[in-house]
Each structure stands twice: as C-alpha cells, then as structure tokens.
Write a structure and sequence with these properties.
This protein has 660 residues and is of the alpha/beta class. It has 3 domains: 301 residues, Thiamin diphosphate (ThDP)-binding fold, Pyr/PP domains (Rossmann fold, 3-Layer(aba) Sandwich); 183 residues, Rossmann fold (3-Layer(aba) Sandwich); 124 residues, Rossmann fold (3-Layer(aba) Sandwich). 44% of the residues lie in helices and 12% in strands. It is elongated. The site of thiamine diphosphate has 21 residues, from α2 and α6. GO terms for molecular function: metal ion binding; transketolase activity. Belongs to the transketolase family. It comes from Ensifer oleiphilus. Its EC number is 2.2.1.1.
Amino acid sequence: MISREKHDRMANAIRFLSMDAVEKANSGHPGLPMGAADIATVLFTRFLSFDPKNPAWPNRDRFVLSAGHGSMLLYSLLYLTGYEDISIEEIKNFRQLGARTAGHPEYGHAAGIETTTGPLGQGIANAVGMAIAERKLRDEFGSDLMEHYTYVLAGDGCLMEGISQEAISLAGHLKLNKLIVFWDDNNISIDGPISIADSTDQHARFRASNWNTIAVDGHDPDAIAAAIEQAQKSDKPTMIACKTTIGFGAPNKAGTHKVHGSPLGAEEIAATRKALGWEAEAFVVPSDVLDAWRLAGLRSTKTRKDWEQRLDKSDAEKKAQFVRRFSGELEGRLSSAIDDYKKKLAETKPSPATRKASEDALEVINGVLAETIGGSADLTGSNNTKTSQTKSITPDDFSGRYIHWGVREHGMAAAMNGMALHGGVIPYSGGFLIFSDYCRPSIRLAALMGIRVIHVLTHDSIGLGEDGPTHQPVEHMAALRAIPNLLMFRPADATETAECWQLALESHNRPSGIALTRQNLMAVRTEYEEENLCARGAYDLISASDAKVTIFATGSEIEIAVKACQALTAKGISTRVVSVPCFELFAEQSEDYQQAIIGNSPVKIAVEAGIRQGWDHFIGSDGTFIGMSSFGASGPYKELYKHFGITPEAVVAAAEAKLS
Ligand SMILES: Cc1ncc(C[n+]2csc(CCOP(=O)(O)OP(=O)(O)O)c2C)c(N)n1
C-alpha cells in the first residue's frame, strides 16, 4: 500500500519531469500532466497490468493517452516505471529532432506508446478498437490467454470531437465493459473555460450511450482507486469523470488556460517547487521516489510470467495460432489458395463488379485466415464485405468475425487502427470511397503509424450512376494517393482484385485502400500468371513493339483503354495498355522498370474517372488525360461515361488528334 505522502511525491515526480521538460524544450503542454498526475499514479501503481521489460506482452492492459498533447505524462510514466526506451536523456530531449519523446506520442518511437495520439478524439476511438480486439480474442482463445483492460485518458477536447460520439456509442452498444475512460474534467481548453463552447452533461451523454459513469475528485487517490474498482465490476464500459485542476501545483497559473500549452516560466516553476515541497533539481527524481516507481514497474512481472506459462502449456495448435497471429505473419497456405483461385479465374473469366470480385477473393482469404475481421459502415450489401465465414458479432456474442459498425465511418477507421495495434486480428472495413473523407484522419494516422488495416472502398466513380455527385468520388483517389505510406489499389477485374487483396494483406507495415466498382467489368487478365502482376504497381497489360500510343488506366477504365487499344490497332496504330493498379508500388520499382513501363510512345494518354492530379508522372505535362474535372451527375452510368467523355471513342479521337 502506498501512503498518501508517497503517492503525492510519486505524482509530483510526473509533474516536475513534465514542467521541466517543457521548459527546456521551450514548448509543450505542462497543464495536463500536472493535472492528471494523480490519476496516472493510481492507475500505474495499483491497477495497470504491464511489464516495462516485456512491453509487447500480448495480455498487458492497454493505456491510451487520448489527449496526446499531454505527452509528457506518458513519457514521465514510461521513464519512471523503467521502460528502457525512455531514459532521462530522452526526457531532456523532449520535442527535439530524432528524440523518442516527440511532441505528441508516436507509436513505434518507444515501447509503451500504444498508439499515436494528438489529433483529439482518435485515441478514445482507437481504445474502442483495442477493447473490441480483446473481447474477440478472449472469446476465441479463452480468458487464460486474453483478458485485460483498456484504459484511456481523454480530455475535454477529445469529448468535444465528433469522433468520440461514434466511439462511445459503439462501445456502449457492444458492452465493452473492460474499457475504462478517465475524463480529465478540468474545465479548460485552449481558448479558456469549456463553458465558452460547450454545455454538455457528459454523464447524461455517456449514460445515454449505455455507459456506466462515476464522478470523483481527480486529486484523491483513494477515490480514484475506488472508482476503478467499481468500473472493473461493471457490465458496461465506464467513464470516470475526474475533477482536476489543470496545472495542479502551479500557484499562479493552475486552473487557467495559461498552463495548457506553454512553458510555465522559471519563476512559476520555482514557485511550484516551493508550493509542492520539491527540492530536487530539474530532471532529478529523488531516489526513494524513483525506487517506488521502479517497483510499480515490476508489479506485474509475476502475472506476465504466469501468463507465459499458461501459453506454454496450451494446446500446441492453439499456442502456434496465438503466437503467429500476434507476430502478424499470415498463414503460409494463403498464397497457394490465392494462386488456385487465380487459376480458376483464368478458366472462368468472370466479369463481375470488382466489389463482388472482392467478396469472392475474401471468401478465399477468410477461409484461410481466421484473424480477418470484416465489417461495414452500414453498407454490407453494397460493400460485399461479408463472407460465409464471417458471422456477425453481437454485444453478447463475439464468436463472429463481422462488425456492423453502423453509420460511423470515422469511428470505424479509428477503431480498426486500435484493433491492428492491439494485435491478433487484421481488420478490414467496408464503406463508399466518397466517404473516405469521413475517415481520412484515421486513415492518415494508420499510414503514419505503419499499421495493417485494409479499407474496402466501393462505388469508386461516376460508375455508381444514379446516386449522383454527392456519392461519386472525383478527387478521392488523388487525395488518398497523397497520403504517404498508404497503398491505394484500384483493380481492373477479378484477377487484379485478388492480387491487390494479397498485396494488402502482405503489407504488414502500412494500410491499404482498395477502390472497387459498383458496375460489372469485363475480365482483362484472361491468362493465368503465377506472378502477382499488381505487385509492381503498373505493368504492361497489352504490349506492343514500337508503340505509337500508350494508354495508362486503372480499374473500370481499363476496359475503355483495352477497347480503344483494339480500335487503334485495327487502324494500324501500334498501341500499348498499361494497367496501374497502385501508384505507390510503382513508385517503389527500379528506375529502369519505371522507365520501361512509362516508355517513350509519342502519345501518352491516361484514363481514370477521377481528376488528373498525379497522372503527369506517367504521361508528362504534355500528355492527354481523359477523366473528370468537375463533379459528376445523377444518371445511368453508361450515359454518364458518355456525358463526361470517358469512352473508347474519346481515347481514339485524342490519340489520332495527337498523331496527326
Ligand atoms: C482534432 C484536433 N483539433 C485541435 C487540436 C489542437 N488542440 C490541442 S489541445 C486542444 C485543447 C484540448 O483541451 P483539453 O482536452 O481540455 O486539454 P487540456 O486543456 O485539459 O490540456 C486543442 C484544441 C488537436 N490536437 N486536435
């Protein structure tokens, strides 16, 4: 048992490390770490099951600092509890280039950082995904191997962001009772008191979403502990509203927005040292306090060792599956299953919409991989993401592998990030490409973190027809291609769809989006090729020696390119077609390969039912682009293609005009 005096000194260690690091960096946010230090101290010294020496232990509790600007809280905790990655030097280097202690916590910079936070609201939604993964794996592997809590510290900002409502309502619906959120209820954000912008009754809000809520004094360790104990017994997720003072301990600035995001200044720091009775110099933690923290870091060693023994004693097959799934490796037989499927496609040459081709590919994939968890944001029948293996998950039954995310694209994408970060599962979504805008911040974070989530994005152009311009993506492929480290695929037929799925799954360290059509497309890969041709990002679909015209296209416009190529060839004009299922993979090929694919035809034409941006890399600024330069329109899709001039005839005419 930690005495109140010891608790206070341990919490003050967080406060001083935080204010001193912010002061040295001359930038950062001292207010939150100072205000939330008591909550964190109670959690990390009495409840959190974690092992700084084995930070990736799969059954550890997860702690998400959703209010990422308070990063010094997390870095202090990681240093104090003994994570090797965060030394005192790292604390001194807070916010410096190359330091693990970046301005906001970045996943991968240091062990113990469970997710990248900073964009407010993302962390709480990631945590919902972590809790989903935990619940799912508990069902699958049993509580011997998987049973842990997911804790979140969220601020007013997180709760004001719309994404938090998606996350909260989903968690309440799914009864994720091992999810415990601390709300740092300090009534302050950047502009001043919360009352200038918000009057939400947060308790009523959470309760309306099927949560349990508790209110405590966030500076009373025993009250915080009692609340956590109560939350752990809940059959619903719990929000613990912790009344805190931002910048606690700073005599003149505490409780004001002045302490939110600026260094306190030497004078105020000196006054705080006096007020809190802290004599140690900057970056020095008195040995009795550091010892107590290091002891807290050892608290769960036995729990972790016991867990390892249970894993060792598990049935060999179960253990192998568990270990493989947490390693992220795929089943070895996946590639042969996809290969067999490609052989079948070459024989049958089907011409489905690629959304249907994706379902068929998933039927193969989900039959081999038990870790894929599908879903859709209320568009299951349109996204074709449900297969025979993926029964729906319900609040009381997690034996399924399919999540009805509801109309919550943003929450879905952020929760999927949390699932991937948790490990043991591979999440894939379903949504309309147009609404990638609704989940773009989470897709961007997946790319920044380098995690494997896969977004199935259907209805990928004016080809969706009658729903009209509100639903027809125009700039979306270009906008998504602009995100670094995201693979955007736009396959042209069933074979390319299978290949793109394989590539997405094999991309362990980055997210993918697969843009798919609503309309049927003819088979263009009619011969079996063992090699995954999409892996190079762009390849010769129809080659021609000494081509006068090269047509580059993706997805549904490949069919147009092929027909134009046939017409031009019939006229004696040597023409090639290059399929470009993935810009990003193409950009990673050797210079020689890229040069060879781009080639030197006098006429280069790109066809894509989207905007031109990005295509000049292939066709040059003097190339011809046939696509969209305005919003779409409502109407039958074949008429739309004619209306917007995206036809084989238009391609032929453009080529002839250039050649004449
Ligand atoms: C999506 C998003 N919008 C804006 C910001 C900029 N920002 C950082 S902290 C903050 C205020 C947050 O207030 P609160 O959660 O109460 O934190 P506290 O003031 O208690 O530290 C804002 C607007 C952000 N990080 N993320």
